[in-house]
Amino acid sequence: MDSIIIRGNGTLNGAIPISGAKNAALPLMIASLLSSEPLVLENVPRLADVEALKDILSNHGVDYRVGGKRPGDAVTTGRRISFRAETIVDTTAPYDLVRKMRASFWVIGPLLARCGEAKVSLPGGCAIGTRPIDLFIESLKALGAEIDIDAGYVSAKAPNGLKGAHYTFPKVSVGATHVMLMAASLAQGDTIIENAAREPEVGDLATCLNAMGAKITGIGTSTLKIQGVTSLHGATHPVLPDRIETGTFAACVAMTGGDVMLQNARPELLQNALDVLKQTGTNVEILNEGIRVSRNGGDIHPVDFTTEPFPGFPTDLQAQYMALLTRAKGVSHVKETIFENRFMHVQELARLGADIAIDGQMATVTGVERLSGAPVMATDLRASMSLVIAGLVADGETEVNRVYHLDRGFELLEEKLSAVGADIKRVSA
Ligand SMILES: CC(=O)N[C@H]1[C@@H](OP(=O)(O)OP(=O)(O)OC[C@H]2O[C@@H](n3ccc(=O)[nH]c3=O)[C@H](O)[C@@H]2O)O[C@H](CO)[C@@H](O)[C@@H]1O
Ligand SMILES: C=C(OP(=O)(O)O)C(=O)O
């Protein structure tokens, strides 16, 4: 099995191109199930999750073609992929395919809306909490679906089509909002979704659906209004830049010091996280080309933050920022409110010399003078990345195992970090 070897070796300098967002690309790809015409996505990142979803969509009858980048496109890493679901050949998403990735469960929305039925295995995904599906079930029932859960599968039926409804989510859910948006786009009549997730990836999906002929208003707010239409057509849509990758590389530079331009990054997608970064003493400059992050010596200041739904601090950056704070001059507090089990990186950061105490949802991070390299492994994607960040300044060699987690969500990780001066390489055992 591959591992990543990092040697702490000083500052990072240069430029890193930001890829298309994993968490936008996945629901956009799933939206291709809603139309018999091609949905062309640009700037699709090369990630294990994208590959896994291609297999799942193929099983339903989606034909995909990978094209080159657009002429003149500044992004060198993304791809243009055309997805076409001319006919849906199978409305079942089997366990073997769905277990690899949580988002694959979301096919339930478009399959149900287009075919009147779907049978989807209960999902897998990052081991960060129990991750129930009650909000999906309740919101689809509000649209008139009949739902049955048996033998690890959710079977949904709407033989006479879905009907528009007024539904208020009792809790903000990104995935359940994606699914309800897709389902309501092809429902009869109007739907109002209240307490919808406002994450930029939800807005990206809604914008793409509108380009396909959907009628969605309120994009970017917590109230989405959808006028159902009878069919959707093809469209071309660029995947949003990855705000989590942006925040992650920003944390790398804050950790090592140096000066890096995050090309194509968009500050409005992670304002809260950039504000927290500034409080650590890191410079953040917004330029036409992207976001420039620099820190020239001096201490990392301690800071307190709490994860919250957008526009709050994203849970998907919690582990990476915690890694940064392990080297702060003083005590920081990190509160995780989205997932109940998202401190799995703490134990591994401790192996590198970090001083972190956990009490329920709160982690107290006491900065240390020095981290020292060791073999480590994490149980999820962002946790793995926190170990890479710590490894960038640790003395000696840090070996991060279970690299398949990183491959789910960080495109060309070693290439991008090596290009700005990090000593990082992948080795096969
Ligand atoms: C592929 C993708 O985009 N994944 C992101 C998505 O995950 P995902 O869409 O799975 O996360 P949700 O927003 O649904 O989860 C938020 C909270 O709601 C709870 N919940 C969710 C659904 C449900 O039916 N019942 C319920 O109780 C979850 O357990 C969690 O506590 O948003 C998360 C929160 O920003 C991110 O960390 C993930 O990276
Ligand atoms: C938690 C994540 O992904 P997933 O929802 O696919 O598990 C993530 O991207 O950090």
Automatic annotation (TrEMBL):
It comes from the Bacteria. It is found in: Cytoplasm. SUPFAM superfamilies: EPT/RTPC-like. Pathway: Cell wall biogenesis; peptidoglycan biosynthesis. The keyword Cell cycle applies. Keywords: Cell cycle, Cell division, Cell shape, Cell wall biogenesis/degradation, Cytoplasm, Peptidoglycan synthesis, Pyruvate, Transferase. Phosphoenolpyruvate binds at K22, N23. GO terms for molecular function: UDP-N-acetylglucosamine 1-carboxyvinyltransferase activity. It catalyses: phosphoenolpyruvate + UDP-N-acetyl-alpha-D-glucosamine = UDP-N-acetyl-3-O-(1-carboxyvinyl)-alpha-D-glucosamine + phosphate. Residues 7-417 form the Enolpyruvate transferase domain. The modification 2-(S-cysteinyl)pyruvic acid O-phosphothioketal is found at C126. Its EC number is 2.5.1.7. UDP-N-acetyl-alpha-D-glucosamine binds at R102, R131, P132, I133, D134, L135, K171, V172, S173, V174, D316, I338. CDD domains: UdpNAET (cd01555). The keyword Cell division applies. Belongs to the EPSP synthase family. MurA subfamily. Cell wall formation. Adds enolpyruvyl to UDP-N-acetylglucosamine. This is UDP-N-acetylglucosamine 1-carboxyvinyltransferase. It comes from Pseudahrensia aquimaris.
